[in-house]
Write a structure and sequence with these properties.
The complex is a heterodimer of chains A (438) and B (313). With 438 residues, chain A is an alpha/beta fold. Helices cover 45% and strands 13% of the residues of chain A. In chain A, the strands form three sheets. In chain A, strands 7, 8, 9, 10, 11 and 13 form a six-stranded mixed β-sheet that branches. A five-stranded mixed β-sheet of chain A has the order 2-1-3-12-6. In chain A, helix 2 runs antiparallel to helix 14 and helix 8 crosses helix 10. Classes of the chains: A alpha/beta (438), B mainly alpha (313). At the A-B interface, helix 3, helix 16 and helix 17 of A face loops of B. Chain B: Its main location: membrane.
Chain lengths: 438, 313
């Protein structure tokens, strides 16, 4: 090592060292500039529209549906997935403000969509929606969840039902059938419990599942009350909500529900092995059950929870994902063309075949026999379709109330305290939302 | 490193350095200063761009509301610490984490280091304790999740041993869930404390121990009066890093409970994330971030200032 003591000593190779340093500096600057440069993943590629989404396992489905779209519009779908939903939300919200927004985005319906629409970053799709309605390719009941201030900002990506999946073999073994009445449901649960099977999957693990039983029980006690509750017209402390919570409490006390930290990812396996009897979840879970080796209609079947009182109108909780077109989409015209053809039955057929779930187009055929039967019956008997709880109010309200329900499920809060807390949050958050709107 | 031995006052250095000779250090020329600034610039720019600017923006944001039109609201977001029971509990949990993550690794780390500071089988035992430190926080959380869920290994083991009445939802009830997570964290972080204490033990001059023995000091007295004072610097590092780790605990909690159920196991770091990204209240989240940063800086400064300042300075 060369001595550094001599202050006057000249380096024999000053140029070389400087060159190296300069080279390193230039390299670092280039790397930094490259890193700061805008990515080209959203750049326009002829014949395609990019689609940002938070579920990479659906990429194959988007590509297949895109092939059908290309026949109609000339543009296929190019999925860009970010598998972490929280990161996806952040990245998408930021990218909408840039000039390189993706052509289409997957979003949640209801107030999550409204919150995004009111920033002015989404395109008005009212004309496309009206055309769909004229063709009978979409039901009017979905429009509210896709609109903000009367204008439509999203197209339904799919429409799931909240159902109770069950293992047909297990039901046969115990001489049970899908319940038509509340009493039959209670009977099934009692029989299963006596046989050492936990009747229902219920969990707060992952946060949002905490509201699944709340929305089911409230809507099955009184669907009109549920609709009023989520619209802010009824109160959480009203008798119907108390009744629903009492039923829930009773189920938990009897040991009819899984522990509150049950991992829903294990639901299909638990159903298959007969550890649990009935699994309340969105119908998109069909894919998971099929992956666990159960065939729809043979290995597993599903039913919608019957009303608590047989005189109450039947209802079903639905969930619709949304396709929206950012105002600053790189290929805006192409994106609008694809949004305007997404609900075409030929596209929906390929899409729902992949998803094994329902289409928002009532004319599209659902290939999953379990779901096809339920949807047919719902249409025939005019069941009330109600939106999923999580997207049916200002996001802060839903998030806070879901946390409260999680606390209730672990007995950290009584049903009365839970409802009181939810009611007080509702009045506060609705006031904040309405103030923002005025 | 200062020790009890070499801290004896010798020839005290003059508090005022001798005046520099004008011949040896000529006034710095502008070119030199520029060159110095040039060398400093990359580091300063990086710290400014990646640390100071975001911090300044966060402080600024914390004074604005979270409505659709974000208006200046003074200290309203900071007032949430008084009015929001979730944030009050978050502070309570953070304090539990700090106490747990400082005391347990310190006591266990020192104990294990002393007991395994020999050759032979104790080396294997030491390796087993240190090994979890090599695993990432999230992976540790996933493993503990298998153990702690109601259907998990802990309850199954209790039932197999006929102790089914002790089986419970470990992650479901407060404060139990926070306590078991602190235990899980200790399982991992004790390893680094053991390594640091071992390094400390091995740098103790054997003469001091021999001298103590000759003076008749037995095991415990020798440990307390001779070994412990020489481990002071290591203890300062272990406590200091544990303090900061305890205050910023996030990954283990996020994977195991996501701060739940009902936000009852949140620490300030989890609350910051919850408020900003899940409740979409960036103003409130920024206030939590600022408070957390101030607490971490203050705690570190107060502690290190007391511990690392040379005596008499």
């Amino acid at each position: 090592m060369r001595s550094t003591g001599g202050t006057t000593e000249q380096s024999p190779h000053p140029i070389r060292r400087r060159t190296v340093l300069a080279g390193l500096g230039a390299g670092a600057a280039a790397a930094l500039a490259g890193g700061c440069a805008r990515g080209d993943s959203t750049a326009s590629i002829p014949g395609t529209t990019s689609l940002a989404n938070d579920n990479a396992t659906w990429d194959a489905g988007y590509v297949a549906a895109g092939r059908e779209l290309k026949k109609l519009t000339g543009y296929a779908l190019r999925p860009l997935s970010n598998p972490n939903p929280t990161a996806y939300t952040q990245v998408t919200q930021i990218s909408l403000q840039t000039t390189k927004a993706t052509d289409l985005i997957k979003w949640q319906s209801g107030y999550n969509l409204k919150q995004l629409a009111r920033t002015g970053s989404l395109s008005d799709l009212t004309g496309l929606w009206d055309a769909y309605e004229r063709k009978g390719w979409v039901t009017r009941s979905l429009r509210d969840a896709m609109s903000y201030r009367g204008a439509v900002y999203g197209m339904p990506l799919y429409q799931s039902y909240y159902v109770l999946f069950y293992n047909t073999e297990l039901f046969d073994k115990h001489g049970l059938r899908a319940p038509e009445t509340w009493e039959e449901l209670l009977h099934n649960a009692e029989v299963l419990k006596k046989s050492g099977v936990t009747p229902f999957v219920a969990t707060q693990s992952g946060n949002w599942p905490a509201y699944e039983w709340f929305e089911e029980l409230v809507s099955k006690v009184d669907p009109v009350f549920y609709a009023d509750l989520i619209a802010g017209r009824a109160r959480y402390t009203d008798p119907q909500a108390h009744k629903a919570m009492q039923i829930w409490q009773d189920f938990m006390k009897k040991g009819w529900m899984t522990p509150a930290d049950f991992d829903q990812n294990n639901g299909p396996a638990a159903l298959k092995t007969g550890k649990v009897g009935m699994f309340l979840h969105g119908s998109w879970q069909s894919q998971g059950l099929a992956a666990a080796g159960m065939k729809p209609g043979e290995g597993f079947d599903a039913f919608v929870l019957p009303p608590v009182d047989s005189s109450t109108k039947r209802s079903v909780i639905t969930e619709a994902g949304v396709l929206a077109v950012p105002e600053k989409a790189v290929s805006h015209d192409a994106a609008m063309a694809n949004a305007g053809n997404w609900l075409n039955p030929s596209v929906q057929r390929v899409w729902t075949d992949f998803l094994q779930d329902g289409s928002a187009n009532p004319q599209a055929v659902t290939s999953n026999p379990v779901l096809a039967r339920l949807r047919k019956r719902a249409l025939r008997e005019h069941w009330t379709e109600l939106p999923r709880y999580g997207q049916s109010g200002p996001p802060n309200l839903m998030q806070g109330n879901t946390d409260d329900l999680g606390a209730f499920m672990t007995q950290a809060m009584s049903s009365e305290a839970t409802l009181r807390s939810m009611a007080s949050r509702a009045s506060k958050e609705w006031a904040a939302w309405n103030k923002d709107e005025s | 490193m200062t020790s009890a031995v070499d801290r004896r006052p010798t020839a005290a250095p003059s508090p005022v350095p001798p005046p520099a000779s004008p011949v040896r250090t000529p006034p710095r020329r502008l070119k030199d200063r520029l060159a110095g600034a040039g060398f400093l610039a990359p580091a300063v720019l990086l710290v400014a761009a990646l640390l100071l600017t975001p911090f300044a923006v966060t402080v600024y944001r914390s004074f604005f509301g979270d409505g659709r039109v974000s208006s200046f609201t003074w200290f309203t977001n900071y007032g949430l610490f008084l009015s929001d029971p979730v944030l009050a509990k978050s502070i309570e949990n953070t304090l539990m984490w700090v106490v747990g993550t400082v005391a347990l690794p310190l006591v266990l780390g020192l104990g294990i280091a002393v007991m395994t500071n020999q050759s032979g089988w104790s080396r294997v035992a030491r390796l087993l304790v240190v090994l979890p430190y090599a695993i990432s926080g999230s992976a540790v959380a996933v493993v503990w999740n298998f153990i702690l869920t109601t259907d998990g290994a802990a309850n199954q083991a209790l039932q197999a041993l006929g102790l089914g009445s002790f089986a419970q939802g470990w992650l479901l009830e407060w404060p139990g869930n926070t306590l078991v997570m602190i235990v899980a964290n200790t399982w991992q972080s004790t390893g680094v404390a053991v390594i640091l204490f071992l390094v400390g033990l091995q740098t103790i001059p054997p003469e001091t121990l021999e001298a103590a023995s000759l003076d008749g000091a037995d095991g415990l007295r020798k440990f307390w009066y001779v070994v412990m004072p020489q481990l002071r610097t290591v203890s300062v590092i272990v406590v200091g890093s544990s303090l900061v780790n305890g205050l910023k605990s996030f990954d283990l909690i996020w994977v195991l409970t996501q701060g739940g159920p009902g936000r009852n196991s949140e620490t300030l770091a989890v609350s910051m994330y919850q408020e900003t990204f899940l409740a979409l209240r960036p103003g409130a989240g920024a206030a939590v971030a600022v408070v957390l940063t101030v607490i971490v800086l203050l705690a570190s400064w107060l502690y290190l200032r007391r511990q690392l300042t040379p005596k008499g300075a």
